[in-house]
Amino acid sequence: CLMAAFRSALKIVHPSSTTRRFDKELLAMDVDILMTALKVAQDEQLKATQAIVQADRKTPVVAPYKYPSKAEGGIPNPEEIGLPFGLAELKQQNQSKFMSTRDKGDKEETLTFSQSVPLVVRSIHARAIACASFALSQEELGQSFLQKKGSGSACYVLDCVEECVNVAAVGMKDSEGNADDQDIDKAVQVMANVAALQHSLPRLFGTLMRGMTHVGMIRSDQLAETFQYAEATLKGADKACDNQVGTMYSRVYECARGKIDAHLNYALEGFNWVQKSVRESPNAYCEGLIGYIRNVFDSLGPMDEGSRAGLHFSCCGHVAERMVKILSERPLAEGARPSAGSIAPISKIDAFGLKNLSSDVNEFKRFASKTGVPQLADCFDELKSITDAMLDPELPDLLRPENSDVRKRKYPYVSLEKIGNILEKYTTGGMSIMGGGRAPAGMLTLDKKEVVALLNLVRSYK
Q: Does the keyword Coiled coil apply (predicted)?
């Protein structure tokens, strides 16, 4: 504003000329002055965002109490003080299915974002106002700008907002560094914060367009084209937020997957699957893993419903995939070592080990069903199908060539290769007379000759 006043006075006492060399340099600088302002606003927005998120505790904001009122059709609710551009609408849904009814009633209602989001949104709004004021002052001084589609100076302001949103989303995403070094709940909160910024964009752009129209920056004959340009810049800003939300989603999943792998590797390293008796409760690794995954799912409250469900499927699908590989892949050759971050497939397992694993699978499915995410339990269908097939007394008949269609209908996820790999590990030591348990009714047990015969039958298929 000081520079605008100075130039206004300068033009009165010393009108510019296109022939004087110094005036040419000033005029050339004037042509790019809005682009310079845009670059300064972009740099300042990134610095401001980094400072704001650094002071953020990454905990959701408590939702303000709102008195019940009759909603008018088609009219948005009035803005909440301190929660501009529709942020007050982003209330968390309580997703925990494991809380008591009393605990749910006592818990405060929270919003999806933390305290940094309103500050970042207001800082973007403030820079947009400053850019619009600067552009208007330049036009009042007689400065003309390269015309874009629509009103020229207003489109520069919209460009400024789009770039500020872009760098703000990047600054919010980078606030937590790598997911490996951070808690999942904080990474989830950063993702929700960027999503909240994205949610505020339509109202932010609408407010700016109304303001620029009121101060005369948008002429009536350019109104339609300028609004089209606003739609394009809004889409660009929305896409920039989408990219950062996607990056944070991947980061959250990678962190959760890494901890799931670490838990499985620790719990199953050297685990004895020749168990000689049927357990009455799931194996310890199963209960521990379910407890960890439950904590992960409980921390996903700030996420939107689609992302939350997607992460449920990703985590459960990863557990099921790891367990299928551990059970059905061929054991490592003597002297070979598993790849980094993984454990070797099971080398020996008996009928009781398979039965207890089947109980673990049922426990995984029960847990998945209680989350309330539709079809989540289906993630464990392949693992359950394999264990059920290996315990089915009809398996020897189902493996005969003439019963191939019947077997595929009953166990569509089970391949002969996986059955053969498990038969190679199958041991009858747990069912010996010395110390062996009694097999329950309906559970397939094989002696050594039967295992060899079935393995030869499976391997004979081409």
A: yes
Q: How far apart are CA 308 and CA 302, in angstroms?
A: 9
Helices (H), 329-415: 351-370, 381-391, 395-398, 404-410
- Same domain, yes or no: 291 and 168: no
**How many Å apart are CA 227 and CA 202, to the nearest integer?**
12
What's the pLDDT tens digit per position in 6-42? 555 555 555 554 555 555 555 555 556 777 788 888 8
Domain identity same for 43 and 129: yes
pLDDT tens track for 188-227:
999 999 999 999 999 999 999 999 988 888 888 888 888 9
Tell me the angle at which helices 116-140 and 152-173 cross, rounded to the nearest 10 degrees.
160
Distance CA 435, CA 247 (A): 54
Per-residue pLDDT reduced to its tens digit, 359-379: 999 999 999 999 989 999 999
What is the pLDDT at residue 97?
47
| Total domain count, the chain | 2
CA angle 259, 90, 51 (to 5 degrees): 70
Alpha-carbon gap, residue 145 to 153, rounded angstroms: 7
Structure tokens belonging to residue 10: 């300068």
Domain that holds residue 315: 270-460
Q: 315 and 206 in one domain?
A: no
Q: What is the CATH number of the domain that holds 366?
A: 1.10.357
Same domain, 236 and 281: no
Residues 246, 313, single domain; the answer is: no
- Tokens at residue 57, please? 């505790």
Residue 332 to residue 26: CA distance in whole angstroms: 75
Under DSSP, the state recorded for 77 is: P
Is residue 46 in some structural domain? Answer: yes
Whole-prediction pTM value?
0.78
